[in-house]
UniProtKB/TrEMBL annotation:
<dbReference type="GO" id="GO:0046872">
    <property type="term" value="F:metal ion binding"/>
</dbReference>
<dbReference type="GO" id="GO:0051603">
    <property type="term" value="P:proteolysis involved in protein catabolic process"/>
</dbReference>
<dbReference type="InterPro" id="IPR001915">
    <property type="entry name" value="Peptidase_M48"/>
</dbReference>
<feature type="signal peptide">
    <location>
        <begin position="1"/>
        <end position="26"/>
    </location>
</feature>
<keyword id="KW-0645">Protease</keyword>
<dbReference type="GO" id="GO:0004222">
    <property type="term" value="F:metalloendopeptidase activity"/>
</dbReference>
<dbReference type="Pfam" id="PF01435">
    <property type="entry name" value="Peptidase_M48"/>
</dbReference>
<keyword id="KW-0862">Zinc</keyword>
<dbReference type="InterPro" id="IPR051156">
    <property type="entry name" value="Mito/Outer_Membr_Metalloprot"/>
</dbReference>
<dbReference type="Pfam" id="PF01476">
    <property type="entry name" value="LysM"/>
</dbReference>
<dbReference type="InterPro" id="IPR018392">
    <property type="entry name" value="LysM"/>
</dbReference>
<protein>
    <submittedName>
        <fullName>Peptidase M48, Ste24p</fullName>
    </submittedName>
</protein>
<keyword id="KW-0378">Hydrolase</keyword>
<keyword id="KW-0732">Signal</keyword>
<dbReference type="GO" id="GO:0016020">
    <property type="term" value="C:membrane"/>
</dbReference>
<feature type="domain" description="LysM">
    <location>
        <begin position="443"/>
        <end position="490"/>
    </location>
</feature>
<keyword id="KW-0482">Metalloprotease</keyword>
Length: 493
């Protein structure tokens, strides 16, 4: 997380641009695209609105990657996008590999298609990559965005923002509607869920595009299975049964769609281009980019800001473009930054004032202290929510003459003390600690005689669940057999 200063106005600006891109779909005439039909061509209005949204989305999702991996993804994406009927010209599509450590993919009107490096790394062949990108293009071709936009416009922009953005962070928490306004992050701008029917239609369109391009259409089923396995692994790593990763929050229940996709694909043969795919993504950054900070278990370290803190026991961290989210069964929070004028008490009051549009939040009092030598200030407000009272805490740190950071947390009344250890763990790290923070990357290796699942998994750059991570990453099971010469993916430093 580069900790860009965030404000409600900024959220509204980005949301307005994204929503503005959606009506172009609704304005098109003709019946919706189906697996048998064709889509309406990209209009001039589509191109204009997509071009306006594109730089905002890049900012929200970590920026565009460059280099050979990005070029490879762009080639595959354009090849599959022209199968949609939106345009026969590859140049009409902009396909971007995003520098984001979450599993996500999406498309917007105007020919703009996106996939994160993390989701690309989960795939195991080119047909799977083409299937996911085709699925996203299918949502645009079928004008599903227009239906999502009509749902959003039933609320004010700000109200819709809270609803749209809160899903992955707050889930169905009983902490009340206040949290939906407090913990909305820019990286969740596109999280209105598609309906089951829309998902099925996009799956079917993706399969159709695969067939038209000569790919194995069964790849849609295998990549959905990998996503389901990754969802389960993420939940296990975080100690929760209901954690919903970003892609799954917008594309619900991949597990239930695996069999349907396999049935729809049939037995038509096609290419997978596995070797080309593995060569194309080899070396891509995996997990957090040190420039945005690193989450390692319950610890967050940002070498650029020389900062580190530890989440409380039972909580997990998710690093976003504009904030680090802290989540657990008994509370939620985030670390972010805002404009700092040099007065911590004023800063805390300003953060409180921006947390909710529904209530004017003010701390009962503001206390000043120091944390590991860092000037700090904090305040608490007890707020009535739809499910009882909750405690909201803002704990701020002065990081320099013109910079401050703050935690915002929400928990049931009387339980805010569970975050005290995290507040007190904030510290400046040394130059040597900052230098020691290294990125993880994907490494494609060739299985040698004598290699086993265990020996390869032991080379993964993780101490927690290395075997489970290795199996999910490669679409394998504990009973899979390796053969010499086979290529597999590892995550290494």
């Amino acid at each position: 997380m580069p900790f860009a200063r965030r404000s409600r106005a900024a959220f509204l600006t980005v949301t307005a641009i994204v929503v503005a891109a959606l009506p172009a779909c609704a304005s098109q005439t003709g019946s919706p695209a189906t697996a048998q039909g064709t889509a309406q061509a990209i209009s001039a209005a589509d191109r204009k609105q997509g071009a306006e949204a594109h730089p905002q989305l890049l900012q929200e999702f970590g920026g565009a990657m460059t280099g050979p991996q990005a070029a490879y993804v762009e080639t595959v994406g354009k090849n599959i996008a022209v199968q949609s009927g939106l345009s026969n010209a590859r140049g009409d599509f902009t396909v971007t590999l995003l520098n984001s450590p979450v599993n996500n993919a999406f498309a917007i009107p105007g020919g703009y298609v996106y996939v994160t490096r993390q989701l690309a790394a989960l795939m195991n062949n080119e047909a799977e990559l083409a299937g996911v990108l085709g699925h996203e293009v299918g949502h645009v071709a079928a004008r599903h965005a227009a239906k999502r936009q009509s749902t959003a416009t039933r609320n004010s922009l700000l109200g819709a923002l809270g609803t749209i953005l809160s899903g992955a962070i707050l889930g169905n928490s009983a902490l009340g509607q206040l949290g939906q306004q407090i913990f909305s992050t820019g990286s969740q701008l596109l999280t209105l869920k598609y309906s089951r029917g829309q998902e099925t239609e996009a799956d079917n369109l993706g399969i159709t595009y695969l067939q038209r391009a000569g790919y194995d259409p069964r790849a849609m089923s295998t990549v959905l299975q990998s996503l389901a396995n990754q969802n389960a692994l993420d939940a296990s790593l975080k100690g929760t049964s209901n954690q919903v990763p970003e892609w799954a929050s917008t594309h619900p229940d991949p597990a239930s769609r695996v069999r349907a996709a396999l049935t729809r694909a049939g037995s038509t043969p096609g290419r997978t281009n596995r070797d080309a795919f593995l060569a194309g993504i080899n070396g891509v950054t995996y997990g957090d980019d040190p420039a945005q900070g690193i989450v390692d278990g319950s610890r967050f370290t940002h070498p650029g800001f020389r900062m580190a803190f530890q989440a409380p026991n039972g909580f997990y961290l998710v690093n976003g473009t504009r904030a680090v989210s802290i989540a657990g069964q008994s509370g939620k929070g985030e670390l972010a930054t805002a404009t700092y004028s040099g007065n911590l008490s004023t800063y805390v009051k300003t953060v409180f004032a921006g947390l909710s549009s529904q209530q004017q939040l003010q701390p009962d009092s503001i206390q000043t202290t120091t944390v590991n030598g860092i000037p700090a200030a904090f305040g608490t407000a007890r707020v009535n929510s739809g499910n009882g009272q909750v405690d909201v805490v803002v704990f701020a740190y002065e990081w320099g003459p013109q910079q401050a950071f703050h935690f915002s947390t929400i928990s049931q009344a009387g339980q805010s003390g569970q975050f005290d250890s995290m507040f007190r763990s904030m510290r400046r790290i040394s130059a040597s600690e900052a230098t020691a923070v290294k990125p993880r990357k994907l490494s494609v290796v060739t299985v040698r005689s004598g290699d086993t699942l265990q020996s390869l998994a032991s080379r993964m750059a993780y101490t927690d669940k290395p075997m489970e991570r290795f199996l999910v990453l490669n679409g394998l099971t504990s009973s899979s057999r390796l053969t010499a010469g086979q290529k597999v993916k590892l995550v290494v430093y």
